[in-house]
Amino acid sequence: MKKEQADDVLLPFTEQDWQEQLGLLSLILISAGGTLNYDFALAGQMAETPLLQRSPQLKSMLAALQRPLSRCRLIRLPLGVHHLQENSFHRFIRQLIYIPLVHYPETQFYLEDQPIFLRPHKPYQLSGTQAHKIVNPHEAVCVYLQIETLLTAGEENTPFLEPHRFEVLNPEQFQYLVGIINDALAESALNPQKIVQLQQASTCLIEDWRNIYNRFGKTWAGELSYQDVLLDFAALMNGKQPYLHGQAQQAAAVVETVLKTTNRPRANRHFSRYFFAARHPLPDSAQCPRFEKPIFIVSAPRAGSTLLFETLAQFPNVWTIGEESHELIEDIPQLHPAAQDFSSNRLTEMHASKEVIDLLKRRFTRQLRNREDESYTQQSANTVRFLEKTPKNALRIPFLKAAFPDALFVYLYREPAENISSLLEAWRSLRFIAYRNLPGWAHRQWSFLLPAGWRDLQNASIAAIAAYQWRQCNDSIVNDLNNIPSRDWCRVSYTDLVTHPQQTLMQIAHFADLDKDNDINELLKQTLPVSSLTLSNPAADKWRKYESELNAVLPELLGRAD
Question: How many domains is the chain partitioned into structurally?
């Protein structure tokens, strides 16, 4: 058994550098943002990972291709048959290149079930969506360099990395793929009348896509409009997957992933504890505790408030409802934005009637839990230190101060580039949808809070919407806090929280007069954990993967809320 290898290329790497991605042990060299992920190009600017920077030889090999590079990784293939096709839009508009680095002559590369001879250390190119596999008959592993490139050929001044850009199917591609799906369904066992209805609905989707493309083309401003059509497509395909095979299954996967940022499975849907608590009767007003100096964390969404909340909730004698208060508050009709014609989530002292305050306290009481997850209704305390964080409360400080006159506010500020980048990522994840079919909104969904003037954002990019939310939140917080005594609020920065957690948390504990015990002292000696709502692994300068989008919205925000 003769091995043809390039051991010197692999010398800079250790066993710990390899991680599983899509079922293969991979060593990520180029990725969105330059972190160790295998996300799609929409997730951000392609960048070299620290692993690639260890190997000038690998980088030279990649540069010699003279093509703008997308995702790139080393893959390690043990004994067995390895199907390497990925059915995604990201691959649909790209080409694949394989370069064998550790290879055996007996190892077979198959393209559409046809054997192809690969020469060691020489590139072999194929379409990104072509079915292919590698059969390794040996116990020893093979190693291949797998590279994705744009379809266009390189020129003399070709950039090393492909630029971050908005990508969608053009109308002809969309029609072609939907046509393949329709043909498969027409030959399936579906009811003929149902097939006709599907074809008619598909025709409407094709026309909608063409109209959006004619209006926006491949620009970020069209993202939410394209997303609406894809949501309709997903609804149309619901339950039809068993009837799709081969090319039709592949076509459906391409369409479904057009605006996806990742190939990771979507997180399970979170159900608010409020809906479970609502099965139980509300306590009487007399059963409610005295909310002594309740602490409200106020910030823009995605500013790190979950991390701060989950950490402060570990202090003794602190009570929370264990989550954000969206449904708990807005299920009170007077506090729902519908009561204000959905103008915003703004609430002031005018909304703090005695009836509303009483109902709000009873709802909080029903869900109160301490750090041991013990229910307040099973305790005998007459007074509680209540901790709450809901990003919409950035617009509700006057209301909260009227409802809880001795309330304290912790203002968490995050720099705009980091905060807006996180908002942008969260909007695209579809995990933070606040309202569906919002009156006055041209699109299917709205994420996070409603600032005043949101209806003027109909044709804005998601980056512009996120920037507007950040600005309105911080402006509102600053203005409202300046109207209450300075002893009732403190300001902390997200940067200080993650770089100097012990000092920052002690500052907050001193301000809020929180008790400490041995558990807290031990907690403060440790690195803060990743919050439960984190979408991607924290990393320095992670926001730079969206730099091209942020550059369009950041200039007018600089200097705000300092």
Answer: 3
Is pLDDT of 535 > 70?
no
The pairing of strands 132-136 and 80-83 is antiparallel
CA distances from 357 to 103, 354, 360, 402 (A): 71, 5, 5, 9
For residue 122 the two structure tokens come to 């020489």
Dihedral sign from CA coordinates of 431, 466, 451, 491: positive
Instruction: Strand 108-111: give its sheet, edge to edge.
Output: 80-83, 132-136, 108-111, 114-116
Is 146 found in the same domain as 21? Answer: yes
Q: Say if residues 52 and 59 touch (Cβ distance below 8 Å).
A: yes
Q: Among the residues of 188-238, which ranges form H helices?
A: 192-216, 223-237
Examine the domain organization and report whether 403 and 475 are in the same domain.
yes
Answer yes or no: are the C-beta atoms of 377 and 366 closer than 8 Å: yes
Q: What is the pLDDT of residues 288-300, one digit of tens each?
A: 999 999 999 999 9
- Over residues 375-397, the mean pLDDT reads 91
User: 556: Cβ–Cβ under 8 A, 6 or more apart, which residues?
Assistant: none
Q: How far apart are CA 319 and CA 388, in angstroms?
A: 9
SS3 396: coil
Give the CA distances from residue 337 to residues 96, 388, 435, in Å, rounded to whole numbers and listed in that order: 49, 20, 10
Its domain, for residue 95, covers 7-150
| pLDDT at site 532 | 55
Please give the backbone phi and psi of residue 475, each rounded to the nearest 5 degrees, phi first: -65, -45
Question: What residues contact residue 412 under an 8 Å CB cut-off, 6+ apart?
Answer: 297, 298, 299, 303, 304, 305, 308, 492, 493, 494, 497
The CA angle 128-131-137, to the nearest 5 degrees, is 120
